[in-house]
């Protein structure tokens, strides 16, 4: 019956297992694509059970219909179609059960965007009216569509898909981002179309989620654009050209013609107002209907056969320019002739187109006596009517002498008289005749006109002319008189009327006409030849003057011309020219001589000398009487033009005193010989040139120098650079037109660099002539920048911008420099990365303008909590680069700091910590828990303040009640995390069992807040443990840290010491120690009762240490242990007991035959353990029955062979000790089991065959009793020491 005690112990152990762990659900949030089809896997519920029990899953709640779950695996399947636009967040109830307990938890299912909606156009009216004169570039309307999708899928781009008619496609454009439709071409209601149908397409940004293929959605809408006509066109006449007719003399208001004009703006159709411009008062027009009628008497003979007028049509309302639109047209009115005019006589002058005629009734004509034939009288007969009929007749006393031609005519005709009887034309009988010419209209006898013609009879020539005298002597004339000089006027008279003032004169003989001549009509005699009229050659001339009348009848008179003397001989200079040589700076004296052929002693022969004004005439003077030429200033050859080569040419005159004075001129050439009296001179004292960098041998510029000396012996110059060149320039001297050119070039071996040390050179150029006279000029050479340098970025300051900003201005600017002077820099973005969650990734939150301005992308919203910084890399390009690369070697980089604003509420950090409070120890200010929270905002916006807003208490029966504010929150901060320490505001009720539900709110500086509920479990006095120490109170206080560490190691619980007080004297003790009052708390809010603490600290390895620290035992507490409900485990105990009894019966049959060897092995092991010195232990105590002993194979219950040296961790040198420990079994050695008491631990084990009546041995170790299958002796006063090994389970047993 040895198995009965063991079975009893095992049944008790099983009965004590009354706590089961609940499953734990880890899934809190799941992301599911909204386009996940029904039947597809959505997510898996993550749940565990510490007992490793099989779990059963289920869903509950109003959203459970959207999903189904595999109750064994936790795989959640989509059951019906999801739609993020209806619910973007679903709260789904999850229930997990392990068969005994079940746990419920609400999780959040976030539906992810899948682009399952197409854009929807907003608005109900799609008819647009636009005036045809709308300005190009005007925004006509805005198309607006919405897409319920978000992110890229919700971004809509607009485009014009089609326009009807098709030519309207070029008239409109649409902004892809905003949908603004803009007029890009001119509308024309009449010239183009008055109606357009526009097909507009809206396409979203596309997206994907469950399926890998990106899908796009689009939608179309038709807009109908009606072009409204505006008054922008002038009116228009219809039926052009206009030609009408009217009879002359028609009545006033007689309708002649009707014109019609319309408004080309057909939809406006404005009323037309008619008017006539330049009608000469003949016609008028009705302003309303355009009827042209007679306004005044019309006479075709006055106004002509036709009248052309300008008619005007004007709209009655102003056009778009505020003016009254109008148009004009020409109308021709033909005037129909009627016979309403009589013939009339006209006197005409000229012929052809130059003929002019005036109405006349009196005519006069001259006819030579005895003339025959027609007599023209410059008469014309005209009838103003278009159809003419004229009869001509003569009347009067002299009508028989003449006849008229023509006698009848159908056209306007020239009228003349014809002499029929010439003998009656006798000047001596009558000088004048008169006839009347009658013109009549045969069709209208009253139409008669009369003209009187007076015929004057002309006399004939029958007398000779006659001079008043027969001769004219002493006609004086000066020699060399000017041509046409009048000498005398001599005329003859003739009594004939026709010869009056009609006599012709001639000078005879013909040879005389080389000296003199006469005007043929006036008789004026004048000089014909000035040169031949020379008194010195021929002083007297004779001639005959002849006069003839119109018939050539002559008359003569004798003429004699006397030539008088004048001053006509100029002075004569005895040389053709004078030439003299003189050195510059010397004195000149030159005699000029001349003679005059005129009579000596007279003014005509007296000579005066003078210098004619010239460029250098002021340098000299001349004696007017002697002709001596001298210089009056010092002669300097360099003052003369270089082209003259020192030669001065003067013109000297010799003039007589006659009237008019005659003179002679001679050239005087003065050669001024050069001397070296001038140094070299530069044209400019300084020069400024420029040259491009990098061009070897390039031409720089030319300096000009000259020596004013005129000869090469003295003006030859050598040019050289004396300083400032730094061996970078060379100069070559050439001569052009007496000026020396110094051509400066870059040295062929030098490559100038604008970006180098020198950008400017100051050269000193020296000019030296052959006489070693010198001059120096300064030459500044600027090295011009050739755009051959790459641009480079300047350091960019970090840009700052607040999140959620709508700022359109630049937030930062890239700046670069180019060492080249002439450059044009543009900027391009190479990359943009945003720091999101601590790592950089590409983004498009910002854009870069070509000017370098950094702008916020208007299509993006900045979110500091998503990304707090951005790094933009840009490239700068020089558009003017001439050579080399045009972009920077190193890209520019700008850091953009996104500043936080208070747009996020505080967020509590979820913690697995469970808080418990020992009600007995709680007082005001006791910390009982804590919360942590953060705010995604930063700086001042992230400053949080915790506050306890509500306190409730939930007792063991789940009853919840509101209590007063027993707790308060104290806010502290650790870096970016704010900690709210929950403290008590007063002592707590020590009798309450349950937990406090403390609602804590976190509020940031902007007033945004959130809250969480904290569970604080209460630990009542039933868990109070009193530890009795042998040491004094002061010693216990001193050793308190070590005591707490040992107790914590033994119990795996937090030890909270309530008090340390002096202990009371017990009957079993001779000394008085101290008592430590403590609670043993676990992290799950529970506490160890006294009984479990006893078991845990009884483990030898902990018991030994506690014994050293003075712990004696756990005292009895007046507080009763917590009562348990035995009914709770009755059914479980009965079932477990039946199973265990069956197992124990089977096991006992197998284990009954235990041999002495196993008992001896255990006894030896125990004896060895008690004999080993503590100094030799390496890894702690190795008491049989502990986990370590079990793992090493020395647990006697398992009946395993062991090597005691190995198991007990003895060194190699300790083999003797092992032997001693084994031999010690033969002796009654004492074992020290407590700090002071010593007593036999174990008696010799009797053989199995030993009779039972010898009585069981006494043991103090439960293990010894178990091995001997004996219980302790009743009535023993030994202390029961319970050993509870946390790692020792029923498996070990």
UniProtKB/TrEMBL annotation:
<keyword id="KW-0106">Calcium</keyword>
<dbReference type="Pfam" id="PF00028">
    <property type="entry name" value="Cadherin"/>
</dbReference>
<feature type="domain" description="Cadherin">
    <location>
        <begin position="580"/>
        <end position="682"/>
    </location>
</feature>
<keyword id="KW-0472">Membrane</keyword>
<keyword id="KW-1133">Transmembrane helix</keyword>
<dbReference type="GO" id="GO:0009653">
    <property type="term" value="P:anatomical structure morphogenesis"/>
</dbReference>
<dbReference type="InterPro" id="IPR015919">
    <property type="entry name" value="Cadherin-like_sf"/>
</dbReference>
<feature type="domain" description="Cadherin">
    <location>
        <begin position="122"/>
        <end position="237"/>
    </location>
</feature>
<feature type="region of interest" description="Disordered">
    <location>
        <begin position="1222"/>
        <end position="1293"/>
    </location>
</feature>
<feature type="domain" description="Cadherin">
    <location>
        <begin position="238"/>
        <end position="345"/>
    </location>
</feature>
<keyword id="KW-0812">Transmembrane</keyword>
<feature type="domain" description="Cadherin">
    <location>
        <begin position="359"/>
        <end position="467"/>
    </location>
</feature>
<feature type="transmembrane region" description="Helical">
    <location>
        <begin position="1129"/>
        <end position="1151"/>
    </location>
</feature>
<dbReference type="GO" id="GO:0050839">
    <property type="term" value="F:cell adhesion molecule binding"/>
</dbReference>
<dbReference type="GO" id="GO:0007156">
    <property type="term" value="P:homophilic cell adhesion via plasma membrane adhesion molecules"/>
</dbReference>
<dbReference type="InterPro" id="IPR002126">
    <property type="entry name" value="Cadherin-like_dom"/>
</dbReference>
<keyword id="KW-0677">Repeat</keyword>
<feature type="signal peptide">
    <location>
        <begin position="1"/>
        <end position="19"/>
    </location>
</feature>
<feature type="domain" description="Cadherin">
    <location>
        <begin position="469"/>
        <end position="573"/>
    </location>
</feature>
<feature type="compositionally biased region" description="Basic and acidic residues">
    <location>
        <begin position="1236"/>
        <end position="1246"/>
    </location>
</feature>
<feature type="domain" description="Cadherin">
    <location>
        <begin position="793"/>
        <end position="908"/>
    </location>
</feature>
<protein>
    <recommendedName>
        <fullName>Cadherin domain-containing protein</fullName>
    </recommendedName>
</protein>
<feature type="domain" description="Cadherin">
    <location>
        <begin position="683"/>
        <end position="793"/>
    </location>
</feature>
<dbReference type="GO" id="GO:0005886">
    <property type="term" value="C:plasma membrane"/>
</dbReference>
<keyword id="KW-0732">Signal</keyword>
<dbReference type="InterPro" id="IPR020894">
    <property type="entry name" value="Cadherin_CS"/>
</dbReference>
<feature type="domain" description="Cadherin">
    <location>
        <begin position="910"/>
        <end position="1029"/>
    </location>
</feature>
<feature type="domain" description="Cadherin">
    <location>
        <begin position="24"/>
        <end position="121"/>
    </location>
</feature>
<dbReference type="GO" id="GO:0005509">
    <property type="term" value="F:calcium ion binding"/>
</dbReference>
């Amino acid at each position: 019956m040895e198995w009965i005690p063991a079975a009893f112990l095992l049944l008790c152990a099983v009965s004590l297992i009354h706590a089961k762990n609940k499953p734990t659900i880890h899934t809190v949030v799941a992301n599911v694509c909204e386009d996940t089809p029904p039947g597809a896997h959505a997510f898996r519920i993550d749940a565990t059970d510490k007992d490793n029990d099989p779990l059963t899953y289920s869903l509950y709640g109003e959203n459970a219909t959207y999903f189904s779950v595999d109750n064994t695996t936790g795989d959640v399947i989509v059951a019906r179609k999801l739609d993020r636009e209806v619910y973007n967040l679903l709260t789904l109830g999850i229930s997990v059960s392990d068969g005994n307990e079940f746990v419920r938890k609400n999780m959040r299912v976030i539906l992810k965007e899948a682009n399952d909606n197409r854009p929807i156009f907003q608005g109900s009216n799609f008819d647009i009216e636009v005036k045809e004169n709308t300005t190009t570039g005007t925004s006509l309307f805005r198309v607006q569509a919405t897409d319920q999708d978000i992110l890229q899928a919700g971004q809509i781009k607009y485009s014009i898909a089609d326009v009807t008619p098709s030519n309207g496609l070029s008239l409109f454009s649409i902004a892809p981002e905003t949908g603004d439709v803009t007029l890009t071409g001119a509308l024309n209601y009449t010239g183009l179309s008055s109606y357009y149908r526009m097909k507009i397409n809206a396409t979203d940004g596309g997206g994907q989620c469950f399926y890998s293929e990106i899908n796009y959605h689009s939608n179309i809408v038709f807009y109908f654009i009606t072009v409204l006509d505006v008054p922008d066109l002038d009116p228009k006449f219809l039926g052009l050209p206009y030609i009408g007719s009217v009879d002359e003399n028609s009545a006033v208001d007689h309708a002649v013609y009707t014109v019609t004009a319309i408004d080309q703006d057909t939809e406006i159709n404005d009323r037309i107002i008619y008017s006539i411009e330049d009608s000469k008062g003949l016609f008028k027009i009705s302003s309303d209907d355009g009827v042209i009628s007679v306004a005044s008497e019309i006479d075709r003979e006055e106004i002509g056969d036709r009248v052309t007028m300008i008619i005007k049509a004007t709209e009655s309302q102003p056009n778009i320019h505020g003016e009254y639109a109008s148009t004009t047209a020409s109308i021709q009115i033909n005037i129909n002739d009627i016979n309403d005019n009589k013939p009339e006589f006209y006197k005409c002058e000229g012929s052809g187109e130059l003929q002019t005629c005036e109405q006349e009734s009196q005519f006069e004509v001259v006819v030579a006596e005895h003339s025959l034939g027609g007599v023209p009288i410059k008469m014309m007969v005209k009838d103003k009517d278009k159809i003419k009929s004229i009869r001509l007749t003569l009347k009067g006393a002299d009508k028989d002498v003449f006849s008229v031609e023509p006698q009848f005519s159908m056209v306007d005709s020239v009228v003349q008289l014809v002499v029929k009887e010439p003998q009656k034309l006798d000047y001596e009988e009558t000088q004048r005749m008169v006839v009347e010419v009658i013109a009549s209209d045969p069709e209208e006898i009253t139409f008669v006109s009369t003209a009187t013609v007076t015929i004057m009879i002309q006399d004939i020539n029958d007398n000779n002319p006659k001079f008043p005298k027969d001769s004219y002597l002493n006609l004086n004339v000066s020699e060399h008189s000017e041509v046409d000089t009048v000498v005398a006027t001599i005329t003859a008279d003739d009594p004939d009327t026709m010869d009056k003032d009609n006599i012709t004169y001639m000078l005879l003989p013909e040879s005389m006409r080389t000296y003199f001549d006469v005007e043929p009509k006036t008789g004026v005699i004048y000089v014909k030849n000035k040169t031949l009229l020379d008194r010195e050659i021929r002083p007297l001339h004779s001639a005959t003057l002849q006069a003839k009348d119109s018939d050539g009848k002559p008359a003569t008179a004798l003429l004699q011309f006397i030539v008088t003397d004048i001053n006509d001989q100029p002075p004569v200079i005895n040389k053709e020219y004078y030439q003299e040589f003189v050195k510059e700076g010397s004195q000149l004296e030159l005699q000029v001589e001349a003679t005059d052929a005129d009579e000596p002693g007279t003014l005509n022969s007296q000579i005066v000398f003078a210098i004619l004004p010239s460029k250098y005439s002021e340098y000299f003077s001349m004696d007017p009487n002697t002709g001596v030429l001298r210089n009056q200033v010092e002669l300097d050859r360099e003052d003369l033009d270089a082209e003259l080569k020192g030669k001065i040419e003067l013109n000297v005159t010799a003039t007589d005193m006659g009237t008019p004075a005659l003179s002679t001129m001679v050239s005087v050439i003065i050669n001024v010989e050069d001397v070296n009296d001038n140094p070299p001179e530069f044209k400019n004292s300084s020069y400024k040139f420029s040259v491009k960098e990098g061009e070897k041998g390039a031409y720089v510029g030319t300096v000009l120098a000259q020596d004013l000396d005129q000869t090469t012996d003295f003006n030859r110059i050598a040019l050289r650079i004396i300083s400032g060149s730094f061996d970078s320039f060379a100069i070559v001297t050439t001569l052009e037109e007496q000026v020396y050119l110094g051509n400066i070039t870059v040295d062929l071996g030098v490559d100038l660099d604008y970006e180098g040390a020198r950008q400017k050179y100051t050269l000193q150029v020296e000019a030296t002539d052959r006489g070693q006279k010198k001059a120096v000029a300064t030459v500044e050479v600027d090295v011009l920048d050739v755009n051959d340098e790459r641009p480079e970025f300047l350091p960019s300051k970090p840009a700052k911008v607040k999140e959620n900003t709508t700022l359109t201005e630049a937030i930062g600017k890239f700046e670069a420099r180019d060492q080249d002077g002439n450059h044009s820099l543009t900027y391009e973005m190479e990359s943009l990365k945003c720091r999101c969650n601590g790592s950089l990734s590409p983004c498009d939150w910002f854009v870069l303008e070509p000017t370098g301005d950094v702008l916020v992308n208007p299509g993006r919203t900045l979110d500091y909590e998503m990304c707090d910084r951005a790094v933009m890399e840009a490239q700068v390009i020089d558009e003017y680069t001439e050579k080399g690369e045009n972009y920077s070697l190193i890209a520019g980089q700008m850091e953009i700091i996104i500043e936080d604003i208070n747009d996020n509420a505080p967020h509590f950090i979820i913690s697995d910590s469970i808080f418990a409070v020992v009600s007995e120890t709680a007082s005001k200010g006791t910390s009982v828990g804590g919360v942590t929270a953060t705010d995604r905002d930063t700086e001042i916006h992230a400053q949080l303040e915790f506050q306890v807003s509500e306190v409730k208490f939930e007792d063991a029966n789940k009853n919840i009640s509101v209590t007063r504010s027993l707790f308060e929150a104290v806010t502290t901060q650790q870096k970016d995390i704010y900690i709210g320490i929950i403290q008590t505001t007063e002592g707590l009720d020590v009798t309450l069992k349950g937990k406090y539900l403390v609602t804590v709110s976190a509020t940031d500086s902007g007033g945004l807040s959130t809250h969480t509920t904290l569970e604080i479990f209460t630990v009542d006095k039933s868990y109070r443990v009193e530890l009795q120490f042998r040491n004094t109170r002061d010693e216990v206080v001193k050793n308190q840290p070590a005591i707490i560490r040992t107790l914590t190691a033994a119990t795996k619980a937090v030890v909270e010491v309530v008090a340390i007080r002096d202990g009371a004297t017990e009957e079993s003790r001779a000394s008085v120690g101290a008592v430590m009052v403590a609670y043993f708390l676990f992290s799950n809010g529970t506490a160890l009762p006294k009984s479990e603490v006893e078991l845990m600290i009884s483990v030898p390895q902990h018991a030994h240490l506690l014994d050293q620290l003075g712990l004696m035992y756990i005292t009895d507490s007046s507080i009763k242990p917590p009562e348990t409900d035995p009914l709770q485990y009755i059914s479980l105990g009965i079932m477990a007991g039946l199973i265990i009894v069956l197992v124990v019966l089977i096991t006992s049959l197998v284990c009954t035959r235990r041999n002495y060897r196993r008992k001896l092995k255990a006894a030896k092991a125990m004896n060895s353990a008690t004999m080993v010195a503590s100094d030799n232990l390496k890894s702690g105590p190795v008491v049989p029955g502990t986990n370590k002993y079990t793992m090493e194979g020395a647990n006697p219950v398992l009946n395993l062979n062991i090597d005691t040296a190995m198991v007990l961790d003895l060194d190699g040198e300790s083999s003797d000790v092992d032997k001693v420990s084994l031999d010690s079994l033969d002796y009654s050695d004492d074992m020290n089991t407590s700090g002071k008491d010593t007593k036999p631990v174990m008696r010799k084990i009797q053989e199995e065959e030993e009779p039972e009546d010898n009585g069981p041995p006494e043991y103090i170790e439960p293990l010894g009793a178990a091995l001997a299958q004996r219980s302790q002796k009743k009535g023993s006063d030994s202390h029961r020491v319970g050993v509870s090994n946390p790692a020792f389970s029923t498996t070990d047993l």
